[in-house]
Amino acid sequence: MARCVLAQSSRFLPFRDHPLQLLLRIAMDGDGECSSPTGRAPGLLPLFGPSSPAAESLEDKLRRVSEENRRLSGALDAILADRRALAASPTPSCHAHGNAAPAEVAAGGGGGMVTAEPRSKVRTVCARAEPSDADANHLKDGYQWRKYGQKVTRDNPYPRAYFRCAYAPSCPVKKKVQRSAEDKSMLVATYEGEHNHEHRALSEYVSDAPAIQLLQQQQEAGSLPCSISINSSGRTITLGLADQRPGSNAEAAAAAEVMTPEFRKVLVDELVDLLKNDPEFMESLTSAVAARVLERIPGQIF
DNA sequence: CGTATTTGACCTGCGC
DNA sequence: GCGCAGGTCAAATACG
Fold this sequence. Notes:
Helix content: 25-40%
InterPro entries: WRKY_dom, WRKY_dom_sf, WRKY_plant
Largest sheet: 6 strands, antiparallel
Radius of gyration: 21 Å
Organism: Panicum virgatum (Blackwell switchgrass)
Domain WRKY: 134-200
Strand order of the largest sheet: 2-3-7-6-5-4
Main location: nucleus
Mean pLDDT: 54
Distance between the termini: 53 Å
Number of strands: 9
Number of helices: 7
Structural class: alpha+beta
GO molecular function: DNA-binding transcription factor activity; sequence-specific DNA binding
Low-confidence stretches: 1-56, 83-120, 131-136, 223-260
Order of helices and strands: EHHEEEEEEHHEEHHH
């Protein structure tokens, strides 16, 4: 039974072992053992490998994914720069109470920016949403929310949606989500209160991701000759290939069918979304970047 | 059929 | 007390 572990990380792993890093390496560099045409470990499915080796040379593929890698790395750098700027700024861009002006919120490339006053139970989160998404008044933050109201407010043409935490009936946390009046692509969410329960298991969150659901649908429909499992921590997604067709090259067939271009895009989008909203990941990321910056400052005395 | 969402009505706080 | 605006409730509706 061949398998490919998509993502694996833990709170204390350095950034280079984080799912996003692994994903980027696997998908873009060709360094990842799953997709590397030469360095692939035996028995591993080339997740992001060519769907038809005859149709496109490995060199072309490698060039293309490397280009994509550069773009994503640039986007990641922008996110990191935003976070560093935010951390260094004496005045938070989004803070408790009140909506943020578009000039104050997260800059290009998207991603949520979260700030909170240390002891406040009210915090505001700004995130970029797709303008085309009609149902974008909903920020994925790992919790389940039940909408209980909507109101058009005086100073904003976009309706404000009211949510309660639906994970635990007794959880007092509420959130309000409203598009920014100045920049409709920005969502401003205000959280009130603190959750009185554990954070929703990441595995639940991951398993709800459209990319994973797409995989599971394909599996159920029989078009996907492999099994999918998400471990309890939600940090490891395993695609297990059961050779259900004796005599056939099931592994190669799966490699060709599973990772369609649209699925790869959805998967990357989902994982980036997921990781952007994963506080542990952002914490690890920040620490790793800080350590890297320190390494690169020669003779710096602190 | 159970659950989630929508939406108009109602409640509450605040300024005048 | 009145009006306004924000917040919440709950019946109706949609959806899987």
